[in-house]
Amino acid sequence: MPLISPVGRKALSVRLLTGSIYAILIAGAGTMVYPFLLMVSGSFKTDVDKNDFDVFPAFVHDDTVLYRKHIECKYNNSITGYNTTNRAKAYEFRTIEAPERVHSKRVADWNEFTRGWRVPPGMYVLGYTRHGDRMRLWKHREFRALLMERTGGDIDEYNRRFDAQAESWVVIGTMTEWLTERRYQLIGTRLEDAFYEFKAAQPAWFRVYPSLDGKYVQEYLEAVYGREIDEYNRKHATDWASYRELALPRTAPAQTLTRQDWEKFVREELNLQFIRVKPEARPLFAKFLEKRYAGKLDVLNRRHGTTYASFDEVPYPDETLHASDRLVDWAEFVKTVPAEHIVLTSPELEWRDFLREKYAGDLAALNRAHEAEYRSIDCVPMPLREVDYVDFLRHKSAVRREFATCNYKQVFDYIVLHGRSLWNTTVYCLLAITLALTVNPLAAYALSRFKLPSTYKILLFCMATMAFPAAVTMIPNFLLLKQLGLLNTYAALVLPGMANGFSIFLLKGFFDSLPRELYECAQLDGAGEWTMFWQFSMMLSKPILAVLALNAFTGAYGNFMFAFILCPDQKMWTLMVFLYQLQINGHQAITFAALLIAAIPTFVVFVFCQNIIIRGIVVPVEK
Fold first, then answer.
1. Does the CA dihedral 68-69-75-76 come out positive or negative?
2. What is the DSSP letter of 218?
3. 202-220 pLDDT tens trace
4. What is the pLDDT of residues 28-78, one digit of tens each?
5. CB 273 within 8 A of CB 125
6. pLDDT at residue 620 is higher than 60
7. Distance between CA 443 and CA 429 in Å, rounded?
């Protein structure tokens, strides 16, 4: 009988009450759906937008957010690298704005310059390769895929070919490049060679050209004279309006203090690949080597692996990026050679040479074409900010697609390429379901069919196990399984949970509700106990068995702590253990993506079994 009669439901007060109840229920549902949508949205984010609490990722419809994410990843999440390259003062990528105006002539000149300049890979950094140690970006994944292709996906073959000791493919795929730093040198490994070969083959819009002007001004001059230009102007007797007007000269300046700054920066801080020494200094180089080796040419030949007949035959090194004894000698020579023999090279200087040739040294024509007011061609900056924005607009769809999939690709890569988590979890879940649907029904059937005198004592014992949390039994189970020698086995995972007191109690009640006449008729027809158990009890109990199977699956699939303790060997780790490790070292967005992916199997099982599960809830109540 309903609490409210059909006539009473028509009253205004009852309708208001009913509407209030529905409103409260909808609000309660919203409190569950809203955090879930935040997690879904957060799974697509990077550092730029990770603190934006929106239920729909802004980069999908907002080009400004997408541009910031692109710049963040192109500059490998280094705001210092972005600032020095673009002579900017941004504190974080989320504050960067697109250029208000793009000067098409500047961009066109730059593209013409890069097409005609055969730039060596050591002169630029490849973007989308590194985001700290937490995210695996576009080119990181592509380089790893290339290595897997070359080695047939065999990690042992990779270690043999590239002289590495990697445990899995997850940790492979990128290099950290600090091209302008004096300490950055390649050691000549096969992996480095493969990476530089890969880098040279990538499209130009992934390149980040380092700015020596930016490094000289922002990392050296500002550290010495302060972030404002006033102290620099006072000591150098200049009238620069800001540091942005300063540039690193190609050769040593004439002014004394400026020359001292230049020499200290070039001799001690700048990477040797940007430094050239004039051919006229060859005699000085020979004298330097003779003094350094105390006239012992055989020692030099042994260290350099050469057979020179005299110190005068020793040439300048033709490669200044790979570490070697020859490069150590060259670095020391650069510190002592007279400054007038030193000449710098860099993307900026090559760019200015291109402009000087194209506009025949006419500064006025260059200013008109670029709509600028350059003081000198030697101060023209690289238009990288505008070039980056034009490249972004041209490849916007590919960039958006990358950010829509990169976090999930990383999780899938981690699951597939790291250990045997998928196989272990599949075997564990299948064994758990099989044992749950075998042991528990047999025990419940025996208690239901044979009416043992101690049935209720046994049920009380089974129910008593529910009074103790799983954490209480974890240590005794561990010690018992250790004494039995079952650690790091599937048996250790499934044996402690194959009999469940609540499942036995539930099944006994369901079996008791079945008509006894069925068993009597079956016995009259000559059916055995197994036939009655399988053909009648089990076939009529599908709804409740589906509930037990789902519980066994969710228990095994979501098992983390117990699986981690019983199987300390990484080869036996289940999916939850691997995802936990990923969350420890991963980005917040990676964690959200991992949780969503981990929820998919349970959701799929529930969707396919929901009708049976609902029957398992409704049928016993009706009976």
1. positive
2. I
3. 999 999 999 999 999 998 9
4. 877 788 888 888 898 999 889 888 888 889 999 999 999 999 999 999 999
5. no
6. no
7. 21
The position carrying tokens 């050679």 is 337
67 three-state secondary structure: helix
Strands (E) in 539-581, as ranges, are none
Contact 344, 250 (CB under 8 A): yes
d(CA 571, CA 577): 11
Lowest mean pLDDT among 142-156, 227-241, 594-608: 594-608
The confidence band for 5, taking pLDDT boundaries of 50, 70 and 90, is low
Query: What was the pLDDT predicted at 555?
Result: 85
How many other β-carbons are positioned within 10 Å of the β-carbon of residue 348?
A: 24
588 contacts 582 by C-beta, under 8 angstroms: no
For residue 554, give both structure tokens: 């969710």
| H/E segment holding residue 617 | helix 588-622
Identify which has the larger pLDDT, 313 or 538: 313
For 515-591, where are the E strands, in sequence order?
none
**What average pLDDT does range 591-601 have in this prediction?**
88
Instruction: Answer for the pair 185, 206: CB distance below 8 angstroms, yes or no.
Output: no
* β-bridge partners, 343: 276
Alpha helix (H) residue ranges in 220-324: 222-225, 230-236, 256-268, 282-292, 297-304
Write the DSSP assignment of 378-400 as a string of letters: GGPPP-HHHHHHHHHHHTHHHHH
CB 445 within 8 Å of CB 510:
no
Residues 52, 50: Cα–Cα separation, whole Å: 6
Per-position DSSP letters for 351-379, written without gaps between them:
HHHHHHHHTTT-HHHHHHHHT---S-GGG
For residue 274, what is the enclosing H or E element? none
Residue 196 sits at the vertex; the CA angle it makes with 192 and 197, to the nearest 5 degrees, is 115
Q: Which residues contact 392 (CB under 8 A, 6 or more apart)?
A: 66, 67, 70, 71, 399
Alpha helices in 167-211 (DSSP H): 190-200
Q: Are 179 and 53 in contact (CB under 8 A)?
A: no
The tens digit of pLDDT for each residue in 287-346 reads 999 999 998 989 999 998 889 999 999 899 887 778 888 889 999 999 999 999 999 999
pLDDT for res 623: 46
Mean pLDDT of the chain: 85
What number is the average pLDDT over the span 176-198? 88
The pLDDT score that the predictor gives to residue 260 is 92
Q: How would you class 292 by CB atoms within 10 Å of its CB: exposed for 0-12, middle for 13-18, buried for 19 or more?
A: middle
Q: How confident is the model at residue 120 (pLDDT cuts 50, 70, 90)?
A: confident
User: Any idea which residue has 């000698």 for tokens?
Assistant: 329
**CB-neighbour burial class of residue 448 (10 A; exposed 0-12, middle 13-18, buried 19+):** buried
CA distances from 317 to 139, 181, 287, 331 (A): 31, 19, 16, 11
Integer Cα distance of 77 and 135 in angstroms: 10
pLDDT score at 366? 92
At position 605, the amino acid (one-letter code) is: V
Bridge-partner residues for 275, per DSSP? 344
CA 284 to chain centre: 50
Helices 384-394 & 396-417, crossing angle to 10 degrees?
80
CB contact set of 126 (below 8 Å; sequence gap of 6+): 139, 177, 199, 202, 206, 207, 208
